[in-house]
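Known limitations

Files may contain more than one protein. Parsers should not assume a single record per file. Below, a two-record file is shown to illustrate correct handling: read the sequence, read the token line, then continue until end of file.
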Amino acid sequence: MQELTTDILVVGGGTRGTAAAIQAARRGANVILARSRWSQYNLNFVKEFLGENCFQIE
């Protein structure tokens, strides 16, 4: 199990969750975005803003 530290945890990467995570990251927050299903397009787009802090949850 990996332990992570973050300023903001967004659970749910729909339109609103993704927008909130990106805006927080643009403002300098360390953000983790977790969602149940990622398309490769969405994952690549969001990683431009959040780096590797995007996780798929089961």
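...continuing to the second record:
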Amino acid sequence: MRAKLDAESLLYIVLVLVVVWLVLQIVNEVFSIVGTLLGPLSSLFGLVIVAVIVLWLLDYI
């Protein structure tokens, strides 16, 4: 049997995971441990994902 989750519940989970990922990216940049390996575009990509999900949840998309 499949679990019955709404699309918005899944989007909230994805939003939380992306926010956690962004926080980890910021920490890595501050401490310069992994920041040089991942490059500056990975944080930008995460911000775009967060913006799209928030706009969708607020019914702007």
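Parsers that stop after the first record will miss the second one. For reference, the second record is described as follows. The longest helix spans residues 7-31.
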